[in-house]
Amino acid sequence: MYRTRLSDHLILILGSFMMIGPVAVIFLTSTHDAVEVHRHGLMATWGGHFTDTYRKVLFESGGFTGQATGLRMLMNSMILGIGFAVGKIVLSMMAAYAIVYFRFRMGTFFFWVIFTTLLLPLEVRIVPSYEVVQKLGMLNTYSGMIVPLLASATGTFYFRQFFKSVPDELLEAARIDGAGPWKFFIDILVPISKTMIAAIFIIMFVYGWNQYLWPMMMTSDEVYFTLVRGIKQILLVWVGSQIPDYNEAFALAVLAMLPPVIVVVVFQSWFIKGLTESDK
Amino acid sequence: MKRVQFSSASLPYLYLLPQLAIIVVFFYWPSVQAIQSSFYLEDPFGFGSTFVGLDNYTDVLESSSYGEIARFTVVFTLLVTFLSLSLALLFAVKADAVLKGSSTYKTLLMWVYAIAPPVAGLMGVMFFDMHIGPFLEVARLVGWDFRIGLNYFDTAFAMVVISVWKQIPYNFIFFLSGLQAIPKSLREAGAIDCRSGFRRFWTITLPLLAPTAFFLLIINMTYALFDTFGIIDVVVKDKAANNPITLVYKVYMDGFRGGDLGGSSAQSVILMFVVFVLTIFQFRFIERRVHYN
Amino acid sequence: MATISLETIRKVYAGDVEAVKGVSIDIADGEFIVLVGPSGCGKSTLLRMIAGLEDITSGEARIGEKVVNKVDPADRDIAMVFQNYALYPHMTVYNNLAYGLKNRGTPKAEIERRVKEAARILEIGDYLDRKPRALSGGQRQRVAMGRAIVREPAAFLFDEPLSNLDAKLRVQMRVEIKRLQRELGTTSVYVTHDQLEAMTLADRLVVLNGGNIEQIGAPIEVYQNPASTFVASFIGSPAMNLLKVTAGEVGLALESGSGLSGPNSKGKDRYTLGIRPEHLEVSDGPTDGDGLSLEVTVNVLELVGAESFVYASFADGGPEIVLRVPSHARYTPGETLHLKALAEDVRFFDADTGKLIG
Ligand SMILES: Nc1ncnc2c1ncn2[C@@H]1O[C@H](COP(=O)(O)OP(=O)(O)OP(=O)(O)O)[C@@H](O)[C@H]1O
Ligand SMILES: [Mg+2]
Q1: Which residues cross the membrane (chain B) (predicted)?
Q2: Is C150 in the pocket of ligand 1 (CB under 6 A)?
Q3: Which residue has the least CA distance to atom 14 on ligand 1?
Q4: Could you tell me if residue A219 is inside a domain?
Q5: C314 CA to chain A: closest CA distance, Å?
Q6: pTM for this structure?
Q7: pLDDT by residue (tens digit) across A92-147?
Q8: Gap between the Cα atoms of C207 and C226, Å rounded
Q9: Total number of domains in chain B
Q10: pLDDT, tens digit, 9 for 90 and up, residues B8-45
Q11: Confidence at residue C315, expressed as pLDDT on a 0 to 100 scale
Q12: How far is B273 from chain A (nearest CA, A)?
């Protein structure tokens, strides 16, 4: 059989380094102070300003109007990530349930109405979407940030595939046991979808947390800024400043990647299963 | 679908309602608007709009800048797709081959999936930065005067590197699980039939990975076209002036910064068409794959 | 407890597949009915119509006195055991059994009593806190049975409940199901394509073929007097020997030309003659009389333990026939055998319709 060669490990170590190196450097640099960074460039050593910088980024306000602390942005990111993931799961489970488990006229029609959304990502209809949200008075609101992102069928597609793989006999047994549509959904289908829900939650949480273009367009009020959205703000503030606050910017970047990275690494096996088994 | 289904006059509609309502309001309405306003010329000061037929389309398609951006988008897409796929495949094959540490490598190579494109963009920009970026030193060694944001080629180079870096983990995850799904008996048969490891990879492993690779091809093209927005935005910092941008970025620039709603909408519709074609390909393919299994 | 009666039940699936073509059966209270037939003959469909899982296209189904055509499965007072058991994977065995009772608003204490009782009968008391995943196939099967009996329904419906078990367990569970049904006295309808299971379990067999009933009767009756060549070849293993013969001047002739002597069917000169393998006996030479007498060449001897099967054919081809011989008997391939059978053991079937004559 195949024998592992040294070169295999070498390539893998190189690849791992390529993935970790930049992030490690950014993190280490964030522990130095701005002047030092400005003078010496990115750092690969521990700087000793860790607590200062992160305390400042988390608890002191930055930005234009001084309303957004790192903590506030962290909370907003959480709201976006969790709100999006939960919304997605609830909506798409219900829709997939209707499509798979009910016989009704127009079923096929609605199936296509929903699945057409897979064709067009938000990016290509961003301007008119903005106008719609504006007309509805949802600019600078959490719902305006989350709800338009829910207008796609990805989750529904996942759950449809999954529900179709559930043995028919389970529904039949439950019906004989006297379970109606709602009881079957809550007592049987939701519990057996647990791992699926967990996997989709992780994927959707990361997706929501990492949203950039949409939050950037529809939040001008810093109170609603997310961490990822904050990146843009950093760059805008830098334009024209003598010594940019590199350290704080990097600290913010580290905060912005930390929660999704933790989730993905800790729940790795669920996440990979969810990603690869549902064909997008 | 199911052998036995519930039949109820109202319930299925009730379950579908929330999803449908959101889709109609935030998908169909804006999409129809995009198509509609692509036929109108909006007055820049907000005094109504006039119907101009296909003018917006011809304007867009005839403008030299659009052609240039389209060309860049194609090159960018192909480069990002090709590079991230091949690197990911290399890592996946190696991670699948080693006996020890395979799961550690897996974690190390996949976790970057969780990083947002603009965050990756910020990090990348700092590495290529003219004041603090370490890459400059390296470039200087070979006599390359690297100037991100100022030199078209250099900026494009940075964009590609960052985009590839960000996409490797996704492809890696799929390739690795594709490889691990190949039955052990098949590999053993391969090992008996063919001594050269390299030949075995080309004649046995790769064909078996072809479905995964094709699926990823489409996904990566979509990624390069749309999801790289955050990276590009951070790299060019709203100053598109001399910098390379992609078609999506132009839609955003024209529609938001430039206030050219008609032109931007026409571009949206053109992009819609491109995605449409890509997705049809993908659907047909998925259908085929379902057949095979 | 209840009777079940079906009156010209039909089922047409979407796409014009007529799976059940007008079936009528009256099932007595406490009776064990087995639906048997080859794959695709409509057994499951018929059972599922009784359960209420499929709509009845036309005809009438009654459980007790009540017409149930439009009644929801939950309200038919039936319980069903599925081939793949369909246990709720996320519930413990206890909850699997209790779920149907809970949905009916049975008091907690009563649920507990019934579950414990069912667990005792089925000897699954030790696993009540386990999830189905942690059970063996046989144990899962018992849980599926338990789910049916706790409900104390008017009827049990079984759809090939044993076909996922290995051969030994299958025999064991078969015996147990029979014992249980005797004890509880609950009307049961049982689907299988295994004719041995059908023979051993049934009070009455219903043999289905292509959506029609071929025969209804007690197993022994069906075995001895199959209503058609279809039933004759389906029930019994090895199957009944069927020989298409033409009555001539002297004796009978096979299509291939070989002759044999045997009893005449009343009034027909072309018919199919049926004889069970155990009714054929090796004799020293051609025999006279009104019994069956034929001469064959041994092809293969199959030893199965307590007995052996001899496969043999006629001199100039034609159908292969089987006979059952004691396990100590030794015949070698190529050997010529004279076989005889009593006239009363021979059955006649119409050459065209395949129906039993007489
Ligand atoms: N949902 C359906 N739609 C269309 N045709 C069906 C459907 N279910 C069953 N059939 C057809 O009806 C016929 C009878 O099917 P049924 O499942 O009752 O057979 P069966 O006797 O139980 O066979 P088996 O022993 O294989 O389980 C078959 O020809 C089958 O193809
Ligand atoms: Mg069946």
Answers
A1: 12-29, 69-93, 105-128, 148-165, 201-226, 266-286
A2: no
A3: C42
A4: yes
A5: 50
A6: 0.87
A7: 999 999 999 998 888 888 888 888 887 778 888 888 888 899 999 988 899 999 99
A8: 10
A9: 1
A10: 778 889 999 999 999 999 999 998 888 888 888 876 66
A11: 81
A12: 9
* Ligand 2 geometric centre to CA of C38 (Å): 9
Show the low-confidence residues of chain B (pLDDT under 50).
Answer: 290-293
A6 lies in some domain? no
What residue type is A84 in one-letter code? Answer: F
Q: Residue C44 corresponds to which amino acid?
A: S
Mutate one of A17, A212, A233, A263 to test the B interface: name it (highest B CB count within 10 A): A212
Q: B142: number of CA atoms within 13 Å, CB side?
A: 6
Asked if C79 and C156 count as a contact pair (C-beta separation under 8 A), the reply is yes
What residues in chain A have per-residue pLDDT under 70? Answer: 1-4, 62-67, 238-242, 278-280
**How far C124 CA sits from the closest chain A CA (Å)?**
20
Would you say residue A58 lies in a domain?
A: no
Q: Tell the residue nearest (CA) to atom 2 of ligand 1.
A: C13
Assigned domain for B58 exists: no
The neighbours of chain C, by the rule of 3 or more Cβ pairs under 8 Å, are: A, B
Question: Domain of B210: which CATH number?
Answer: 1.10.3720.10
**Domains in chain A: how many in total?**
1
* Distance in Å, CA C55 to ligand 1 centroid: 14
3-state SS assignment for residue C78: strand
Q: Distance between CA atoms of C351 and C357, rounded to whole angstroms?
A: 10
Mutate to test the interface with A, among C47, C50, C53, C101 (most CBs of A within 10 A): C53
Tell me, using a 6 A CB cutoff, whether residue C42 lines ligand 1: yes
Q: Cα(B38)–Cα(B35) distance, rounded to whole angstroms?
A: 5
Which residue, by CA, sits nearest to atom 25 of ligand 1? C39
Lowest mean pLDDT across C179-193, C194-208, C289-303: C289-303
A 10 A CB-CB count for C256 gives 13
For residue B187, the tally of other CB atoms under 10 A from its CB is 18
DSSP states along C308-343:
EEEEEEETTEEEEEEEEEETT----TT-EEEEEE-G
Q: Which atom of ligand 1 is nearest to the CA of C48?
A: 18
Does B8 fall in a domain? no
Q: Is residue B282 part of a domain?
A: yes
B162 touches chain A (CB under 8 A): no
Residue C48 beta carbon below 6 angstroms from any ligand 1 atom: no
Determine, for residues A169 and C82 on separate chains, whether the beta-carbon distance falls below 8 Å. Answer: yes
Within chain C, where are the H helices? Answer: 43-51, 93-103, 108-122, 137-149, 167-184, 195-201, 219-224, 229-234
pLDDT tens by residue, B68-109: 899 999 999 999 999 999 999 999 999 988 878 888 999 999
CATH topology of domain C238-350: OB fold (Dihydrolipoamide Acetyltransferase, E2P) (2.40.50)
Interface confidence (ipTM) of the complex: 0.89
Q: What residue numbers bound the domain in which A79 lies?
A: 65-276
Quick one: CA dihedral A158, A160, A165, A171, positive or negative?
A: positive
Ligand 1, atom 24, lies closest to the CA of C39
Answer whether B270's CB lies under 8 Å from B58's CB.
Answer: no
- pLDDT score for C11: 94
Compute the nearest-CA separation of C53 from chain B (Å). 7
Q: Does B4 touch chain C (CB under 8 A)?
A: yes
User: Ligand 1 mean position to C39 CA, how many Å?
Assistant: 8
CATH H-level superfamily of C4-227: P-loop containing nucleotide triphosphate hydrolases (3.40.50.300)
What are the domain boundaries of chain C? 4-227, 238-350
Q: How far apart are the C-alpha atoms of B122 and A235, rounded to whole Å? A: 9
Q: Is residue A142 part of a domain?
A: yes
Q: The domain that contains A267 carries what CATH number? A: 1.10.3720.10
